[in-house]
Amino acid sequence: MKFISILLLLLSQSVVLAAEIPDYPAEKISANSYVIHGPLQFPDEKNQGFMNNPGFVITNNGVVVIDPGSSVYTGNMVLRQIRQLTSKPVTHVLNTHIHGDHWLGNQAFAEAFPDAVIMAHPDMIARAKKGDAAKWIELLARLTKGATNGTKAVIPETAVEDAYELKTGGISFKIYAPAKAHSKTDVMIHVVEESVLFLGDNVLSGRLPSMDDASFRGNAKACAIAIEIPAKQFVPGHGKTSDVSIVKQFKQYIETVYSQASQHYNAGLSDFEMKPQILKKLTAFHHWVGFHDDVGRHISLAVLEAEAAAFE
Question: C-alpha angle 75/111/133, rounded to 5°?
């Protein structure tokens, strides 16, 4: 019996150790804005579910966090990086969309700062409450072989819609909510005085997106909106922060897949028949993470969207 107790204790300690996310540096991208660039790979045991780009802005009053990651452990890692730069409290947490790799880190900030206001698109809040939160908790635990265990879904309570503007500590956070883009729950956040735009997964760089919830046409429109926003630094949901060129490049991928799929669909080709021809148009993206695994699915989804568009 004593042996079993010791074994259980050792196992519980190993789970805690496995759940610790190593520190990733917070990179300064403007006077008061920082991004922690996560790995590009999909969630697994090695990266422990951390894969997105958490960001934060230090204002006169406190810290505004954007997309704190996929688990309480990722959120704690983000908090450690914040604490290296400031002792100010976190006043707000903004979530860009429903996909749990971006927002399940809310738990860490809700526990450390009970008065922090957690904000998201109203449709994200609704979907999370209707079951998407539980699905993401289960999915990430399964993909990481339990590395995210212990994470609880802290669902945002304050809704932000298109044109909403949060002003705090001398800095304005302007919300853009393009309809039917990456997840149909998306917001982009323009930190006006910092000339920074947090894009969420409306734009990725160096990695293919999940398009299962997305609209190709809507995502292209979101990119068009982002291109017109007067920012100098553009933070993708995954991949390195850069200038507006990453938005234009991602828009090119989305539009090429959809336009080519539509063209070949209208010519009577099936998705697998058109794939070789479309791949030739996408050579600039062949090196992106996930390309060879996901491009076929993207073509199939684009065909379905083109087929639906024909009946609109």
Answer: 65
